[in-house]
Amino acid sequence: MKRKCIVAIVSIISMSFVTACGQSGTSAPVAEQSSEEAEVTPVTEEAASEVAATEEAEPEPSPEEIIEVAMNEGLDYYYARNGKTADNDKALEAFQKAADLDSADAYYYIGRIHDRAEEYGEAKSAYEKAIDLGNSMANLGLGFLYEYGAEKDGIDKNYDKAKELFEKAVADGCIEGNYGLGTLYIEGGGNTDADCNKALEYYETALTGDETEWVAGAYDGLMEAYVGYYDEIDKDLNKVDEYASKYEELSKDWKPDYMSDIGLAYEYAEEYDNAIEWYEKKDTKTSLKRLGYMYSEGVGVEQDHAKAFEYFNKGADLGSSNCMSWIGWYYDSGLGVDMDVDKAIEWYEKAGAAGDGNGYDLLAHLYHNGEKIEKDDAKALEYAIKGADLGYITAMLDTGYLYENGYGTDVDCDKACEYYAKADYYGDKTAKENILNMLNSGKVDVETANKWMDYYYK
């Protein structure tokens, strides 16, 4: 049965037409004609050109042929195949030609390219267009946007919507959709309880798919599953090594930051020398952020704030918003560099504007504490809300705290419950306790507490 999720891309074989100049063998003799018997019509130069043009003209390619050629070119650049070097700009240009003719597959890959570039709003639009045109694989890409959230682009985290999209992909014949379900079940979220064994089954099933990117993702998921982080799965470094090797094999030609993913797995497995080795292979936002963190906290290495600060600056140069927050924190704390609150504020602002809610939340702390700058709880609340809007859990808790206690605003316990409830939905394990404490202290009644306890799960 033909899979629905991706139209098979088959290379076009160009047929050349060869005109015979003559034939072997003896031709029949031609009777001579006198000038009186044969009337010769002279051929003008213009007429001869028209005849030649007619003979040489090739038929216009059909829309299907244009799409096929464009998709092959796009995939060559997307996956660095057939002698091409990975180039998302060239891939996007090729896919757009096919998309202009309403190719569902082209819109899917356009979504993937925007997704890779962290242009999540554009990715969402392309995925939705692909789905409308009949591409089921796009359900997987869109599902991940909802699973992880892209608040800066107006996409709130929604685990249940993500699960619905993953299941739709599978139902429509996309085996790779099982990878999405595996990522959801490995930790749980929304109304889906964590089930690591079920997650492993989904990952294994996804390995039988055809789409390289998602099969590689399933190997990445299996690699991280055995690092010893999950109680239900025993740590197994042999499996980590095995899956890391397979992930590298599938990813090395087209995924610039695959080495950082492998480094993360070894860091989680507390194999710090291996982690550093992989991180140092290539400077990426993730590798520089993690190296900065390890040296800042002394994880697996001797603590070295100067070195951490250096790594965070490199990461910021590549556009890492989290590294920007760390730079702000270093100027704020005065560790490894001279304390400079103005520079701290500048970097926190940069981080928040680039999408890191932590930067805004750290600004909220500066203004609420009032130790290094003039205390201003109205600004503290403003920045805490900005951080929460970017999906940063600590900022949600801080916003709830400020509303609960009337800092920078009137006391608003209903609003406090709203932010605590959102923090719970995003994965915080203590947020519901805050609502219960407000109930027990008489700040909210039973009806209000019940309203917010499962508000985001409905």
Count the beta strands: 0
Q: Report the top-level CATH class of the domain at 62-169.
A: Mainly Alpha
Order of helices and strands: HHHHHHHHHHHHHHHHHHHHHHH
Shape: globular
Counting H and I runs of at least 4 residues, what is the number of helices?
23
CA(first)-CA(last) distance: 37 Å
Rg over C-alpha atoms, rounded to the nearest angstrom: 30 Å
Q: What helical percentage do the residues reach?
A: 55-70%
Which structural class fits the helix and strand makeup?
A: mainly alpha
Named CATH architecture of the domain at 62-169: Alpha Horseshoe
Quick check: average pLDDT? Answer: 90
Unreliable runs: 1-40
CATH topology term of the domain at 62-169? Serine Threonine Protein Phosphatase 5, Tetratricopeptide repeat
Instruction: Outline the biggest β-sheet.
Output: none
**Which superfamily, in CATH terms, is the homologous superfamily of the domain at 62-169?**
Tetratricopeptide repeat domain
Described by its quaternary structure, the protein is single chain
Taken as a percent bin, the fraction of beta residues is: under 5%
